[in-house]
Amino acid sequence: MNEFSYIFLLFLVSSLLLKLWLNKRQMTYVYLHRNNVPKDFKGKIELDAHQKAADYTIAKTQISTLNILISSGLLVFLTLGGVLNILVSISQQYIQHDLWAGTALIIGVFLLSHLIELPLDIYQTFKIEQKFGFNNTTIRQFFKDQCLQIALMLIIGIPVIYGLLWVMSQMGEYWWAFAWLFTIAFTFFMTWLVPTVIAPLFNTFTPLEDDQLKSRIQQLLERCGFNSKGIFVMDGSRRSGHGNAYFTGIGNNKRIVFYDTLLESLDPDEVEAVLAHELGHFKCKHITKQMILSTCMTLVGFALLGWLKQQNWFFDGLYMAQVNDAIALLLFILVSPVFMTFLHPLSSKFQRKFEFEADAFASTVAKPTALVQALVKLYRDNASTLTPDPLYSSYHHSHPPASVRIDHLNSLAKPNN
User: Distances from the Cα of 95 to the Cαs of 59, 87, 117, 150, 164, in angstroms?
Assistant: First the structure.
């Protein structure tokens, strides 16, 4: 072991203990507040619904804890445990071409990780989601989805990884800049492709048929200066009882998607308010800001990888017997999240700021009270806890806690009364 080995272990253990401690805090805090509905929600959410949300949150957090332990253990086995060296030898033994051997290695590790996590996914779906009344998928549908996900991983992942490895080997000293451009181009292409090609492989998207609601939405879009390719309803109830709405696509391929479960739960005023919030992200340029930040972070990441690829201590510290482009790329993908763990609160803080700004915008084009009512229904129907641990929430959650967000919206509504 060298100095980097100890640094890696220090960050890994520290991040592991931090996540486990936060999960423990979350479960304890939620349980202690299980029998009392917060005052802002009294009369709006019944005690049994609040208790269901608490129990559901605790069950999901327990699964999260197990997943953290498994993923951390897998990382140690792959690196310091020498398993990655074995996989490298196998790929090189059966594939003579370096680029194809490297591609097979990276895809193989992704598949291995997916298969190891599969039992937890099965338990989450058919035990936890089923117990709390959210699972609508069948075993057949579940495994059909799994096969489709793996097929897409192979169809899309193989050429992308091969392309990155080719760039790393052929583009000279500044290969990392070309790799960055390649990755950004691929990301934009996938953002354009997913709504019309990939998403329909999993769900059915039908144009919104409610003419009255469609007219209200079109008027809202016109007021906000938002051009959309269409307004669609997704058959989310086919797999889950959870409701949601989102924007997808870029340029002229943007579309608005509502889960059918959400439309069944909310009235037209509330649907309009939820959409107004999403439009707030567009008008406040949050999507653009996030894309710029992601683009910059990707560039920094590739530049760092370009430097690490030349450092023998990086490979020695992770017990690698060989040094090549595929191993460097794979190690960076596996190890970098460990060192990014402590930046999560900063990311969450900015995302929560965006949520407040989107709520503020929504209050100018729709009724703040309607958004409050919609959120209360969504918290209730999705069994979202109303009492998350503050530290856990500040670390993990991109949205403000329910009571904080409702208070903010109520303050926006007062000048309009």
Answer: 44, 12, 27, 21, 18
Distance CA 338, CA 317 (A): 15
Q: 90 lies in which domain range?
A: 3-186+312-340
Q: 170-226, pLDDT tens digit by residue? A: 998 899 999 999 999 999 898 888 888 999 999 999 998 888 888 888 888 888 887
Average pLDDT, the chain: 91
Query: What pTM value is reported for the model?
Result: 0.90
Residue-level pLDDT at 410? 85
Q: What share of the chain is helix, strand, coil (3-state, %, to 5)?
A: 75, 5, 20
Burial grade of 115 (CB within 10 A; 0-12, 13-18, 19 or more): exposed
DSSP 3-state assignment of 246? Answer: strand
> Is residue 142 in some structural domain?
yes
- Among candidates 23, 33, 2, which has minimal Cα distance to 66? 23
State the total domains in the chain.
1
Domain membership of residue 405 (yes or no) is: no
> In this structure, what token pair is assigned to residue 87?
């996989």
Is the residue at 317 inside a domain? yes
* 289 located within any domain: no
Contacts with 8 (C-beta within 8 Å, 6 or more apart), sequence order: 79, 317, 318, 335, 338
Q: Report yes or no: 294 and 281 within 8 Å, Cβ to Cβ.
A: no
At 67-80, the pLDDT tens digits run 999 999 999 999 99
Q: Quick one: 312 exposed, middle or buried, by C-beta within 10 A (0-12, 13-18, 19+)? A: exposed
Which two three-digit tokens encode residue 289? Answer: 């800001």
Percentage of residues of the chain with pLDDT beyond 70: 98
